[in-house]
Every structure is written in C-alpha cells, then in structure tokens.
Design goal:
By secondary structure, the chain is mostly helical. The protein is 86% helix and 0% strand. It is elongated and about 50 Å long.
Length: 117
C-alpha cells in the first residue's frame, strides 16, 4: 500500500507541476485558453493572477516532493489536505471539473497514505 500511496502522491505532484506550467508560462497560449475556457483578452488581462496561482501550485509540488523524499507522513498529509481544500474551493467558486482534476486525486492519495500507515 505504501508504494501505491507514493505513486498517487507523485501523480498529484505531477498534476500540480503541470498546472504551474500552464498558469505561469502558457496562460495566453491557445490550448491553455481552450482548457480553461478563457478568451485571449481575458488571458492577457489575468496573466499576472494566473502566474500567482501557478506559483502556489509550485509550493504544493515542493511540499509533496519533500514529503516523499523525507518520507514525512506529516508533510504528505498536510500538503494533500491543502490540495483537497484548494480543489473544493475551486469547484465551489470556479468550475465543478476541479473536483475531478484536483480534489479527487488528492483525496485518493490521502486515503492511500492513511491506509499505508
């Protein structure tokens, strides 16, 4: 179960690294705009805000990776809870799709971590 938990944490970290790249570097690209359902004008106007969101995703990645490297239960649990809370908030305020893309993988990883204890 520990291996499954670590793989799931790796998947969650990889997703958030991908979100970082989209939000910090590719926000105004056509494929990113299509994925987020934004217009070119909105993407240009919100580029700094998106980069800020991307930076926060980077902090989640750093915490999850540190948790894996240090084999720290506390780091794994804390940062997975952060992922889940951010996913729930995003689903409530932006798009329900965020439940599937962010909160669900985080919840599955957290369940696996707790079961592996």
């Amino acid at each position: 179960m520990k291996i499954a938990a670590e793989v799931l944490i790796g998947v969650v970290a990889a997703l958030h690294l991908y979100f970082l790249v989209l939000e910090m570097f590719l926000w105004t690209a056509p494929r990113t705009r299509a994925a987020f359902g934004t217009t070119e004008e909105f993407a240009k106007a919100s580029k700094a805000l998106a980069a800020n969101q991307g930076l926060y995703n980077g902090f989640l990645v750093a915490g999850l990776v540190y948790g894996l490297i240090a084999d720290s239960l506390a780091f794994k649990v804390f940062f997975l809870i952060c992922v889940i809370v951010a996913g729930l908030y995003g689903a409530a305020t932006a798009s329900r799709r965020i439940l599937l893309v962010q909160a669900l993988p985080g919840a599955l990883a957290l369940a696996a971590v707790l079961l592996a204890r």
